[in-house]
Design brief:
CATH superfamily of the largest domain: Recombination protein O, C-terminal domain
GO biological process, one term: double-strand break repair
Largest sheet: 5 strands, mixed, barrel
Family: Belongs to the RecO family.
CATH topology of the largest domain: de novo design (two linked rop proteins)
Protein name: DNA repair protein RecO
Keywords: DNA damage, DNA recombination, DNA repair
CATH architecture of the largest domain: Up-down Bundle
Number of strands: 7
Function: Involved in DNA repair and RecF pathway recombination.
Bound molecules: zinc ion
Distance between the termini: 49 Å
Strand order of the largest sheet: 1-2-3-5-4
Radius of gyration: 20 Å
Shape: elongated
């Protein structure tokens, strides 16, 4: 049987038969992969513990007729154990996995940027940024905005999302795709504070240094806007998003 290797993040697993699992992964080279891990639910399994959600692993696969089979697993990072110690961090991570699963639909289509974003966000969630830790909800917001942008739904926090007229603008509409000028403003658009829009811009661009001094109220408003924007663009509520403490 032909084999191949790839690095991947485990998104979810489900039971198959007596002792096997189907593992859904987001990989560096092949995008989404669903593969069978045989015997992993037996206590004697060599790699069962390495194939849990949040595991970052290097794997070898044997190509199968329908699903490929995992034949080797080496651990790169175990993001899971640290996350389970803190409920807000864990739920933030869970939303990330679910979002990646939702945004990368096709199996076998490379999705390198989504893979790198997810691994990077889980790393920040575990170890903080270069200049210190950030609240889990803020790390999640940055991930959601960037993952949506990579998927083609980049929000605008400066120029009008409808007509492009140069900002800053003060009205925000998730449906319109970001801030809007007064002429384009739909009914029901909100008016976030200028600090909030600035924070959202920094989160979208991954400028962590500009998020260091964000006030709690600003971060909370940014979180609400990100959730509204993400929910709109992901069609229906992410199951785990409702559990995030904001
Ligand atoms: Zn406009």
């Amino acid at each position: 049987m032909p084999t191949y290797r790839d690095e991947a993040l485990v998104l979810r697993t489900h039971k198959l038969g007596e002792a096997d699992r189907i593992i859904t992964l987001l990989s560096r080279r092949r995008g989404k992969i669903r593969a069978v891990a045989k015997g992993v639910r037996r206590t004697s399994s060599k790699f069962g513990a390495r194939l849990e959600p949040f595991s970052h692993v290097d794997l070898q696969f044997a190509e199968g007729r329908s699903l490929d089979v995992v034949t080797q697993v080496e651990s790169l990072d175990a993001f899971g154990p640290a996350l389970t110690e803190d409920y807000p961090t864990y739920t933030a991570g869970q939303v990330m996995l679910e979002t990646a699963d939702r945004l990368v639909v096709e199996e076998g289509e490379p999705a390198l940027q989504q893979y790198l974003l997810l691994v990077g966000a889980l790393r920040v969630l575990n170890r903080g940024t270069a200049d210190g830790p950030r609240p889990a909800s803020m790390v999640l917001d940055s991930y959601l905005l960037r993952a949506l942008a990579v998927a083609g739904y980049a929000p605008s926090f400066h120029d009008c999302a409808r007509c492009g007229v140069v900002g800053p603008h003060t009205a925000f509409s998730p449906v319109a795709g970001g801030v809007v000028c007064e002429r384009c403003r739909p009914a029901g658009a909100s008016r976030p504070s200028p600090d909030t829009l600035e924070l959202l811009g920094a989160l979208l661009e991954g400028r962590w240094v500009d998020t260091r001094d964000a006030q709690t109220a600003t971060a909370r408003e940014a979180s609400g806007i990100t959730a509204a924007f993400a929910t709109w663009h992901l069609d229906r509520n992410l199951r785990s998003l409702v559990h995030v403490e904001r």
